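Bumping my old thread because nobody answered last time. Still need a sequence for this structure:
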């Protein structure tokens, strides 16, 4: 039933302070949001959407929830260093997982895991 699916579109990170998260992600990805409301902030990043959703008051932060999302990059060490310089915490430094693919992960200031992947074998159609 592939005809019903056209691929991944949106990754949503839940944050307790939407304004601070928006500011951090503008610096992290170098893009301003295309959708900016008190209930949701959306960025277009390379044809995909990064969404920021505020946590409801009193809601426990869901963390990564067992889901890992990886953003494609051309220079993984540079992207990793850039996020660390903005205050992200290292989780997994860039490393090879099968020639020529490399991955890394960091946590944003709200403990959402951001995955990075260099994979020249995967081409977006």
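Sorry it took so long. Here it is:
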């Amino acid at each position: 039933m592939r005809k019903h699916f056209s691929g991944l579109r949106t990754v949503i990170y839940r944050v307790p302070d939407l304004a601070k998260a928006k500011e951090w992600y503008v610096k992290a990805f170098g893009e301003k949001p295309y959708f900016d409301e008190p209930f949701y902030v959306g960025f277009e990043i390379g044809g995909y959407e990064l969404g920021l959703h505020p946590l409801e008051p009193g809601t426990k932060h869901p963390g990564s929830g067992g889901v890992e999302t990886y953003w494609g990059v051309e220079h993984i060490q540079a992207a990793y260093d850039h996020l660390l310089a903005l205050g992200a915490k290292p989780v997994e430094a860039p490393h090879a997982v099968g020639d020529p693919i490399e991955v890394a992960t960091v946590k944003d200031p709200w403990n959402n895991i951001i995955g990075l992947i260099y994979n020249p074998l995967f081409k977006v159609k």
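The chain has two helices and eight strands. Let me know if any region looks off to you.
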